Amino acid sequence: MTLRTEIEQVLAEGAALGSPVPHLTSRDDSALKRHPSVAVADIDFQDGEMHFLGLKVVKGESSQLERVPA
Hints:
The chain is an alpha+beta fold. Helix content is 27%, strand content 30%. A hairpin with a 2-residue loop joins strand 2 and strand 3.
């Protein structure tokens, strides 16, 4: 499952935008920025932080989508 699909599924299940938090390794973060299927509009930077599909991306030691309770 791609990160986009997982985020869309969590949001469709009723999670509030901003409650799922994508954690990405530096390698996955870099790959996401260069992936041909990711539109330029899908990634933005605000206050020095990367956002993917409107969600703040946190860099860590493993890649996962954290589901934060609302």
